[in-house]
């Protein structure tokens, strides 16, 4: 895809009244929460035979980002039990194979105390350093308010996790 520059990075965070182990167990059970957490999520498939998340796990998702339908194919690239899970993907905008952006999320847990955990979603997107993509990013950022909408998108997921964990007490 050529030379890249990270065009944006956001870090929404919530504090959850639950120990890190409970947050972790909920988070890595992605098949049971991700689709329900946001109406912009359309599908999630864990590819391969092993449904357990770990480094190398491949996922395919369909979701909308700032109203733009996307298909993403990615891999779990970081996994540190009770601390973080990270995935990197190629997002095909409008589900077209020729409009692609690298993006990812690093879910990071921080223990506040025995009964409270901070959960942060470090979300980033890396548009190719080419004229057409520069225009696309300009439209995404300035006309679609894409960065702000992506922040709200990630916060919706975080709040879903928070509410469901705290309700389960």
Structure report:
A hairpin with a 3-residue loop joins strand 5 (68-80) and strand 6. It is built from 4 helices and 8 strands; from the N terminus they run E-E-H-H-E-E-E-E-E-E-H-H. It is 28% helix and 45% strand. Strands 1, 2, 3, 4, 5, 6, 7 and 8 form an 8-stranded antiparallel β-sheet that branches. The protein has one domain (4-167): 2-Layer Sandwich (Alpha-D-Glucose-1,6-Bisphosphate, Chain A, domain 4), CATH 3.30.530. With 169 residues, it is of the alpha+beta class. It is globular and about 50 Å long.
Mean pLDDT: 92
The succession of helices and strands, N to C, reads: EEHHEEEEEEHH
Under the CATH scheme, which architecture would be assigned?
A: 2-Layer Sandwich
Give the termini distance in whole angstroms.
Answer: 47 Å
**Number of domain units:** 1
Which regions are unreliable across 5 or more consecutive residues at pLDDT < 50?
A: none
DSSP summary, beta strand count: 8
Q: How many DSSP H or I helices?
A: 4
Helix vs. strand class: alpha+beta
Please give a handful of descriptors for the protein shown.
169 residues, alpha+beta, Alpha-D-Glucose-1,6-Bisphosphate, Chain A, domain 4, eight-stranded antiparallel β-sheet, 4 helices, 45% strand, globular
């Amino acid at each position: 895809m050529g030379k890249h520059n990270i065009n944006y990075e956001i870090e929404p965070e919530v504090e959850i009244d639950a120990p890190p182990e409970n947050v972790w167990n909920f988070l890595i059970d992605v098949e049971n929460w991700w689709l329900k957490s946001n109406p912009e999520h359309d599908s999630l498939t864990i590819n391969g035979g092993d449904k357990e998340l770990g480094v190398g796990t491949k996922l395919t998702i369909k979701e909308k980002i700032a109203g733009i339908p996307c298909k993403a194919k990615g891999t779990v690239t970081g996994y540190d039990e009770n601390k973080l899970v990270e995935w990197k993907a190629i997002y095909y905008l409008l589900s077209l194979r020729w409009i692609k952006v690298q993006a990812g999320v690093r879910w990071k847990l921080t223990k506040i105390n025995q009964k409270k955990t901070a959960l942060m979603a470090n979300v980033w997107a890396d548009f190719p350093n080419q004229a057409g993509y520069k225009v696309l990013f300009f439209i995404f950022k300035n006309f679609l308010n894409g960065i702000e909408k992506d922040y709200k998108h990630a916060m919706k997921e975080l709040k879903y996790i928070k509410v469901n964990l705290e309700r389960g007490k």
